[in-house]
Amino acid sequence: MTRIIAGAAGGSTLTSVPGTGTRPTTDRVKEALFSRLEAYNAIHGAHVLDLFAGSGSLGVESASRGAATVDLVESAEKPAAVAQRNADLVNRVLGWTAARVHRTKVETYLDRAAEDLSWDLVFLDPPYPLQDAPLGAILTSLVPHLSQGAVVVLERSARSPEPQWPEGLERFAEKKYGETRLWFAEPA
């Protein structure tokens, strides 16, 4: 069982995706991640993008903590339906639509994003088997949509090598939590 940890919807139980097709971020990792993001002042008023959103727990946590907008991108039917339920929950508590679900492939979403659209905080939690080349292409597509001072958080297996950061994006921190490694990057 996962929950929204803090903010307007803090303590609310989130719907989880049934089965083993997704890998939810544990509450322990989520608490540590959001403590760090709050120290960076990266959440309040931010435009957030949650790629490979799964249940949308990172995005809706951001909305609960004061993000201005949250775009949850998930291509699979069941996880997208769960993300919609979780977005509806946080939107209901907030009294307005902060979180929106986009059921499409990440690559398609980024290719079709308006040229002037930018995000301040981006979460990427791709399936662990995703190879370096497609991940690099996604990161490259993301670069022109990052605001100045944006923070990109990439969640991977602790056994995965550091991704090849494209031109315009550089790592500034990393942290390992058991089987999970978080990479933090910013516009170069």
UniProtKB/TrEMBL annotation:
Gene3D superfamilies: Vaccinia Virus protein VP39
Pfam families, alphabetized: Cons_hypoth95
Assigned EC number: 2.1.1.171
Origin: domain of life: Bacteria
Enzyme class: transferase
InterPro entries recorded: DNA_methylase_N6_adenine_CS, RNA_MeTrfase_RsmD, SAM-dependent_MTases_sf
Keyword field: Methyltransferase, Transferase
GO molecular function: 16S rRNA (guanine(966)-N(2))-methyltransferase activity; nucleic acid binding
Record carries keyword Iron-sulfur: no
Protein name listed in UniProt: 16S rRNA (Guanine(966)-N(2))-methyltransferase RsmD
Native source organism of the sequence: Arthrobacter crusticola
Species lineage: Bacteria, Bacillati, Actinomycetota, Actinomycetes, Micrococcales
